[in-house]
What does this fold into?
Amino acid sequence: MDKKRARLRRSRKTRARIAKLKAVRLCVHRTPRHIYAQIIGPDARVLAAVSTLSKELRGQLGYTGNVEAARAVGRAIAEKARAAGIEKVAFDRSGFLYHGRVKALAEGAREGGLKF
It folds into this structure.
């Protein structure tokens, strides 16, 4: 099994568990250059989205593929979630390991006030 197929298998398992709970989820996707975060409702509607490409973050960040950028995205998604009235989410890391930039985004979201 190659790396991408293993990640997608892990993501399917996680999303199936979250779907059973009917919880709002914080979905993370990363590429070598950028990181993306979305708050998705139980009905699969995107309620809030932030990435390193967002206008509010693009000017603040020097390089977008590092831990500092991921932490900034986490704080920004927490602000948007609180503005939408969301305080508790399930963390969907899309099969990525909880390490490095994914971990930094989660810590930034927790600093911003999200609970998961």
Residues 54 and 80 are 13 Å apart (CA to CA). The domain at 3-111 is CATH 3.30.420.100 (Nucleotidyltransferase; domain 5). The chain is about 45% helix and 20% strand.
